[in-house]
Structures are given as C-alpha cells and as structure tokens.
Amino acid sequence: xxxxxxxxxxxxxxxxxxxxxxxxxxxxxxxxxxxxxxxxxxxxxxxxxxxxxxxxxxxxxxxxxxxxxxxxxxxxxxxxxxxxxxxxxxxxxxxxxxxxxxxxxxxxxxxxxxxxxxxxxxxxxxxxxxxxxxxxxxxxxxxxxxxxxxxxxxxxxxxxxxxxxxxxxxxxxxxxxxxxxxxxxxxxxxxxxxxxxxxxxxxxxxxxxxxxxxxxxxxxxxxxxxxxxxxxxxxxxxxxxxxxxxxxxxxxxxxxxxxxxxxxxxxxxxxxxxxxxxxxxxxxxxxxx
Length: 289
Known about the structure:
The protein is α/β, with parallel strands linked by helices. It has a single domain (11-288), classed as TIM Barrel (Alpha-Beta Barrel), CATH 3.20.20. The chain is built from 12 helices and 10 strands. It has an 8-stranded parallel beta barrel, surrounded by 5 helices. Helix 7 (176-188) links the parallel strand 6 and strand 7. The two termini are 15 Å apart. Mean pLDDT is 86; it is low at 1-7 and 215-237.
C-alpha cells in the first residue's frame, strides 16, 4: 500500500478501510487560500474549521458561515482559551444557532488564556449551564501525550469530558503502535466514545515536519526517523501520503471494541492533493474486490 493499495487485501479489511475513508472529516484552517481549496472537497463533506491562536474565533465563525452556505456540514472549533467569558461564549453559541450549525469541536487551544476558561472541560461545563442547543460535540485526545499537560491530567480530563461529548479525535500521529496502544488504554479505562483517527493529508514533507514540531508531536517525528523504510514509503513526489499508516492500523480499525468511525484529515489546506489520494484509495479498494 506504499504506492498502491494491495489488491490481495482481505475483503473484511477492504470493507473496514472503505468505511473509514468514506467517513472522512476534512479539517481546514481559516487562511487566505482556503476558499480556493474548497472546490476540491466532496459535495456535502463534513468540514472542520480550526481556531488559530494567531487569529480570532470570529474568523472561524466567518469561514464556517461561508462553508455552510456552500452546502458543507460545518464543524467549527471552539477553543476555550480564546473565549473571554461566559457572555462571549453565549454570543458565539447564539451565532451558531442562527447559522443552523449544531455541531462543534471543543479544544483547550494553543493560545494563551484570554479569559475565564483554562481548558475545554471548563468550557464544556459552562456550555451545559448555558443550554447550548448543540446536537453533536467532538473533543480531542492525544495518543502521544501533550507538550505541557501531564499524562495523568490528560486521562482524567478525557474521562470527565466523556459525558459531554459524542466522539473524540486523535491528535496528529504517525506511529500506528502509539495509536493502537492509546485505543486499548481508552477502552480499558472505560472511555467508550467513538473515535476518529486524525492523520495528515497529502502535504509537502517540509511543511508537515514544521507543523508537526509546532504541534508537539515530536515522538512521531522520532518514530519516522528511526524507521527509514517506513519514511520512504510515507513520502512520495508531492509529499507525505498516509497509505502506509492506514494499512498498519487495519487490525485496530477492524476490532469492534475500538469503535473507529472514520478519519479526521488534517489537510493544512492541501485539499486538492489530499482528496485525490482519498479517491485513489477508494478506487483501488473497489478494484481489489
């Protein structure tokens, strides 16, 4: 699968891969070039809109409004540290209701704390008191830990958030063993939320490495550097492609207790190349039947 999906792949595995590829959620960043890239998205796709610490949440809401007008199922990110206070949170939730957007993704965020909410859990608790009116809420989880949050705190927070959320998404990770171990630990700790696997799309390798370092996924970069054969398979002309990572995750994806529902693709606004990859994989899975 490094160059092409293995045509001899087991039918059950092919079905599992097809299922998660069809359940893809595309993440976009509210930057200047983003609307040009939306033309390459599948019609009616689910699209997450990040909350960048270098911008305002209003930029996230504005892009969400534009994408919703084009018929996409929009999932704006609400970053707790970017929200000033309960009044600001109430106003954002009111705006989303007017836009008929009932699905959000809650994160603590990478910005310095700007107001009352230190983390996503504090904001989720406030959202319940406000009566948010949302129909679906996603939260983040971290197979390789977090840059400045201790692992024990991450697990305690994830367990506490579970009652407020409908699913969780893994932070970007290149190490299939780390993802598998994380899923197993989640289920052993009684965290039963359905899972979307977060992985990069087809992105130029230098851009990907820079972003990965900024996001604090150093262990994955180390993993790639220690597995040079895998790195060669992951990188092709035009950049990284996630074929090999997905192939190595097939046993986990197929395990019923894992409850993996789809992919959350970090496109970094490289939608054209990413969607071409996804369509190619689906076509090759069909040919392999």
